[in-house]
Amino acid sequence: MNAYEEYMRQMAQPMRDELTTAGFQELTTPEEVDQFMTTAEGPAIVVVNSVCGCAAGLARPSAKESLNNEKRPTHAVTVFAGQDREATNRMREYFEGYEPSSPSMALVENGKVLHFIPRDDIEDHEPEEILANLTQAYNQYC
To answer: How far separated are the first and last CA of the chain, in Å rounded?
Structure first.
């Protein structure tokens, strides 16, 4: 690993920790993504994490808060765009029909997307709007 990659990994660690300490499982390899997507039972929230400001101020806080909803997914997982590229690319293959964007969130079940929130529905939106988007999907599918 070169100095730049090491710097970025260290810089991103608190961004990873913000989700993992809230109960999200990190998927860091394509194999972990495949294992999860093909064997997990019940709905799952997938957060495509990012170093950008809208991930920090909007996506991660909304995703964490969404887990307090009465109805919520059985699983919460995350991949990190720009950090774990291969895992993120593999997860995006499951998001068939959706353009890659980060941050983004998907409610999935049995390897299929039930609901997708692209960056366009995160950036320039209020955290309450994003939370409402997530909880509506949870109330419908969970």
So the answer is: 41
SS (H, E, C) 53-117: HHHHHHHHHHHHHHCCCCCCCCEEEEEECCCCHHHHHHHHHHCCCCCCCCCEEEEEECCEEEEEE
Distance from the Cα of residue 2 to its chain's centroid: 27
Residues designated as active site: 52, 54
Is the separation of the CB atoms in 58 and 125 below 8 Å?
A: yes
Of 68, 82, 83, 138, which is closest to residue 105 (Cα–Cα)?
Answer: 138
Q: pLDDT tens digit string along 41-94?
A: 999 999 999 998 889 999 999 999 999 999 999 999 999 999 999 999 999 999
Give pLDDT, residue 105: 98
Q: Are 73 and 42 in contact (CB under 8 A)?
A: yes
Q: How far is CA 72 from CA 38, 54, 66, 67, 78, in A?
A: 20, 23, 8, 6, 16
Tokens of 3: 């100095």
Q: Is 25 helix (H, G, I), strand (E, B) or coil?
A: strand
